[in-house]
Amino acid sequence: DQQKFRKWATTKIRTTCPHCGTGCQVDLLVKNNVIVGAEPADGPANRNLLCVKGKFASYKFVASGDRLTTPLIKRQGQFVPASWDEALTLIADKFTALKQNYGGNSLAGFSCSRSTNEDNYVFQKMVRTAFGSNNVDNCARVCHSATVHGLAHTLGSGAMTNTIADITTDVDVILLIGSNTTEAHPVIGSQIRQAVQHGTKLIVIDPRKIDLTKNSTMHLQAKAGTNVALINGMMNVIIREGLADQDFIAKRTEGYTAMRELVADYTPEKVAKICEIEPEEIINAARLYAKAGKAPIIYCLGVTEHSTGTEGVMSMSNLAMLVGKIGRPGCGVNPLRGQNNVQGACDMGCSPFDFPGYQKVADSKTIAKFEKAWATKLNPQIGLTSTQVLPAATRGEIKGLYIFGEDPIVTDPDTSHVRHALESLDFLVVQELFMTETAAYADVILPGISFAEKDGTFTNTERRIQRIRKAVAPRGGAREDYKVFCEVATRMGYSMTYDSPSQIMAEIAQVVPTFAGVNYKRLDILGSLQWPCRSLDDPGTPIMHVGQFSRGRGLFMAIPYKPAKELPDATYPYLMSTGRMLYQYNTRAMTGRTAGINKLANHSYIEINYEDANRLGIKDGDKVQVSSRRGKIQTYAAVGDQVMQSSVFMTFHFPDGNVNEITNPVFDDIAIIPEYKVCAVAIEPV
Ligand code: SF4
């Protein structure tokens, strides 16, 4: 009986939720090598809370019968099971031949923002050493690359300045812009709501009536794509009314005069017309934010996913610096990163511009440093972003691509062009948990390992590095992801081997100064560390830019408003935005395998204003066709007042009614991020 009890006893494994960037701590309940439940744990970001995804959809996919368990090689159009040796040899031979014939720049890799820091570090090292290319990127390119570029340029570091607890506890005002927090980062949304219950005033700037508008003091329902104008208008008011912090500006910033001269032209009256709101709303929001003691700016993809995304992010820095609300508790500029480890994938150098720790490819000293550390010659040429790799594949310039845990056919704009790009490749490898739309185009598919089957670390949106721990054995013959990358690199001639993820972290600490004080022993004792953490006695950095910005002086940017690249016209009269919903997560690869979640949300929809729906003869729940210059899809109407007249909104989670068939593949010039948040569409009943 004792033995039987032990066999069935439940073990609790403390780990980190694999969905959004909040980084909630969760205990997986394991019985006989199967995860049977998940319980909230008291982590610094979640304080014993979990959302519906963390509670019910964080583990069922692990044991799904759909998991890939063995390598597959495409032969005569069919995937055929293969041995690891056969698959890895084929991959190494093909990539080596392409490199010899066309050079390292003909190869590229997309890394996985849901996988660990350690996997991401080894993946980019494989691309840079064995492939001989800096064409490595991760899905931050299509969500928060504008944050990385915009905050790094203005503040010196492209990351959230404060911590979640700090900006949701005892603050006077929260300025929430372009973030549907209760659906995209539900636990942070709950903490914002709790803050309001304790007296915090909430300003929501969003083209939709999001859930948190019910808790807001004011909701500025500005037209999508007008953030830069709106922030310029608020700064115009703050300067004119003498609310700017002149002492902070003089001591800690540069570039103020040019910015002040530019925003002098952005009167509330002029901006109100651009944003389609009232001038008083701009004036009142500016006063409330500027006069508050503690007031963080919290933003998300409503700011970044525009053809002016980087400029929108720089506007956040401008506003916070103007009133001296940065580098101190309860303030700052706080992007909410989307995926569980998209912060970490960026930190680990899965970027064509940056080695690990944002050390620049363009800097010859950095190249020399990594050549010494990795004992090989490196390509000094800045690589292509993922959004540049796909068109380059179509042009025949990229020949071989390795995609680790990403599904660009569903996630990138204008799907038909993505398909064409993948078809144009000479050789495509996809490493995944499940067969995906993108994997179907691969020449070789390798089975990946889920978060519950490996050790490692994730870094959440507040720069907090936390452990994940192996709870169950990998499925079938799947191997640890970093070991697969080591095998590929070694077979291509660059010998690479690690015994464990902690050994990889030890190497990261050696080459990344902001991770120098990070190791597994400290993480296991302390629970987490926030970078920068520069030595073994450094407790980490909860608030950045205290006393001095990472770049020295904070840089004001004079940013003129530019309209979105495609606006409604007579043929396509509706302005469409896209975004997340509560129950599903990204491409649904994980959440879509939980029956209860699918019961709650199993199809795409488009939010349409009552007035527009009446005019079009569309009722709530009707099937409708949505078309743009890129194509047409069918989905279901959700009629209400969440969106303004002439605006519509679609979720991006579902392959039926995949909104990215019709989104606009135009890009921000700096971060090369797509403009998911604005395109023009037509709607008709089916
Ligand atoms: Fe997971 Fe995000 Fe929900 Fe937390 S808020 S449980 S990290 S999905």
From TrEMBL:
GO terms for cellular component: membrane. GO terms for molecular function: 2 iron, 2 sulfur cluster binding; 4 iron, 4 sulfur cluster binding; formate dehydrogenase (NAD+) activity; metal ion binding; molybdopterin cofactor binding; NADH dehydrogenase activity. It comes from the Bacteria. Its main location: membrane. Keywords: 2Fe-2S, 4Fe-4S, Iron, Iron-sulfur, Membrane, Metal-binding, Molybdenum, NAD, Oxidoreductase, Repeat, Translocase. Transmembrane segments: none annotated. It is found in: Membrane. One of its GO terms (biological process) is formate metabolic process. Its cofactor is Mo-bis(molybdopterin guanine dinucleotide); [4Fe-4S] cluster; [2Fe-2S] cluster. In the C-terminal section; belongs to the prokaryotic molybdopterin-containing oxidoreductase family. This is Formate dehydrogenase subunit alpha. It comes from Loigolactobacillus coryniformis subsp. torquens DSM 20004 = KCTC 3535. The chain holds residues 218 to 903 of 904 of the full protein.
